[in-house]
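Hi, here's the filled form for the chain we discussed.

Project: internal
Contact: R.S.
Residues: 119
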Amino acid sequence: MDWKLDDSRPIWLQLSQQLARRIIAGVYPPGSKLPPVRELAAEAGVNPNTMQRALAQLEQEGLARADRTAGRLVTQDAAALEAARLREARSVVQGYVQAMSALGYSREQAAELLKEEFS
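And the returned structure, exactly as it came back:
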């Protein structure tokens, strides 16, 4: 999987957000085991401590939980997953509205273009 990291925000936060997207998209299904910290860190090309902090953030958000014997597991809490999905969707919509505004479109025009795209 591709990891897209830049210097605009803390790396651990970017990792956490990308992992959360993978969880809500079903790459890591509810109840499944997340790969070990070192494996994820190597895949992303980051220090294991940085990945550990990103995974701790997922736990704080209720998307993952640590199990002493099984490692980290994706939550099975459907409400937590749906809340994260909705947060992510709102973020995407906000980015769309901002981009369209920068192009000179009103919110109404941006909404109309979006409706046309789905028609």
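Let me know if anything looks off before we file it.
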